[in-house]
Amino acid sequence: MTAKRTSTQPRLLVVNDDLQYGKWLSYHLGVFCPDSSVITHNHKEFEHWCDTDAGHECDIVLITAFFGSSPEDPKAKGLEILRRLRGRTIFPAVIMVAEEGNELTAVRALQLGAVDYLPKRLLTPERLNTSVRLAVRRIEKRVQRKITTTPHVTVALASDETTRNQNAAVDRPGAGSEPY
User: What single string gives the DSSP state of each residue in 143-172?
Assistant: First the structure.
C-alpha cells in the first residue's frame, strides 16, 4: 500500500463505537495524513461535542453509523447525525461509513451533504484514502470560493489585474491606444 500525502493537513474527527475498528480507521488516517491530528470519539462523546463545539476543531468528520433499509427507517441514525451537523453554522466535510444501508440511504446521505458514503463491509485502506483526498479537495475548493467572493479580496484581485493590464500596455509600444 502506498500512502499519498495531501497538500492540506486536515484535522480529523473519527466517530465510532467499535474500539478495534476505531483503531483501524485512526491508524490508516494517520498513514494518509501523517501531520494531521486524529481525534476519536464514541457516539455519546460525539453528541456532547455537537452540543459544545463550534466546529472549529475539525475539518473532516468520519462517522460510522447505521443507516437501515431506507431513509425512513428508525435505525437510520446516520441520516439523523447528518441533519444535525447540517444545522450547525460550520458544516465540516463528512464521510459516512455505513454499518447497514443501501443505495437509497447512500443517495440521501449525499443529498444531506456527506462528501462520501462508504459501506463498512467494503471499506479498504485505498477507498478510505480516496475518500479523505476527496474531502480535502472539497475543503480547498470551499476556501478558494470564500477567498474569491470576499469583497476586499475580490477588489484587491481586480486591482492587481488592472495594474497588470496597464503595465503590459506600457511595456508594448503603441499598445496603449490599440485594442488587443
Answer: HHHHHHHSHHHHHHHHHHHHHHHHHHHHHS
| Cα separation, 63 vs 61, whole angstroms | 6
In eight-state DSSP terms, residue 65 is E
Range of the domain at 58: 12-144
Please give the Cα distance from 127 to 118 (Å, whole number).
8
The CATH number of residue 39's host domain is 3.40.50.2300
- Distance, in Å, from the CA atom of 69 to the CA atom of 44, rounded to the nearest integer, reads 23
DSSP labels, 75-141: T-HHHHHHHHHHTSSS--EEEEEESS--HHHHHHHHHTT-SEEEEGGG--HHHHHHHHHHHHHHHHH
66-100 pLDDT tens trace = 888 888 888 788 888 888 888 877 788 999 999 88
d(CA 101, CA 38): 26
- In Å, the largest CA–CA distance within the chain is 74
Residue 62 — φ and ψ, nearest 5°? -110, 115
Query: How far apart are alpha carbons 102 and 178 in whole angstroms?
Result: 62
pLDDT of the residue at 132:
93
pTM of the model: 0.73
Residue 67 lies in a domain: yes
